[in-house]
Design brief:
This protein has 196 residues and is mainly beta. It contains 2 helices and 10 strands; from the N terminus they run H-E-E-E-E-E-H-E-E-E-E-E. The chain is 9% helix and 37% strand. It has a 5-stranded mixed beta barrel with strand order 1-2-3-5-4. The chain is elongated and about 65 Å long.
């Protein structure tokens, strides 16, 4: 824990920030757990390379492998202030909050029952994921992959019968069966999109 009583300038600065305020600064360091930002109007931090901090989920709406896929050291950024982390004495920030949520944009222009096209991005024991729009993926559950009562795994989407088999990268047509805006969850059906 950082003792703010020993750093009055830092305490005054952090306590002056308001939730939702836009703060600008420079990316000072990238770590596996997040990104430190040296804020333009902020004092130096006694321990960290910057008084601002971005957790990995707050970097982007898009899926990415490493923080360096989104930002680089020395890059100028503008972020939304989320809250004052009193334990680490830092300003928690969000870069993604400065951009529209692509899931909500998709939900605004899409209705349950609508047919959409996408690309398979991931296979799982319970189905597969399809990217249907920029940074928006939905799950196509494949109930035939597990036994109904025991939940025992029977196969994977790659082991389905020939006509239903999928691989990562395949283009598929699906029907939207559920849009959950709050949990940002999209359910899709391939069987409903198949011609009768």
């Amino acid at each position: 824990m950082i003792e703010l009583s020993e750093n009055p300038q830092l305490r005054v600065f952090l306590e002056s920030l308001r939730c939702g305020e836009i703060l600008s600064g420079t990316v000072a360091a990238i770590e596996r757990f997040g990104v430190f930002v040296a804020l333009d109007d902020g004092p130096d931090h006694p321990v960290f390379p910057g008084v601002g901090f971005l957790t990995i989920p707050e970097l982007s709406w898009r899926r990415f492998e490493a923080a360096s896929d989104i930002v680089h050291v020395g890059q100028r950024v503008s972020c939304v202030f989320l809250h004052f982390d009193t334990w680490n004495a830092e300003a928690r920030l969000s870069l993604r909050a400065t951009q529209p949520d692509p899931f909500q944009t998709f939900a605004d222009r899409t209705a349950v029952g609508q047919t959409v096209h996408g690309r398979v991005t991931k296979l799982a024991p319970f189905g597969f994921f399809v990217r249907v729009a920029d940074a928006t993926e939905g799950l196509v559950p494949e109930p035939g992959l597990t036994r109904e009562l025991t939940g025992e795994l029977v196969g994977t989407p790659g082991e389905l019968p020939e006509g239903r088999r999928v691989r990562v990268g395949d283009e598929v047509t699906v029907v939207v069966t559920e849009i959950d805006r709050e949990r940002r969850r999209l359910l899709l059906s391939r069987s409903q999109a198949s011609p009768s």
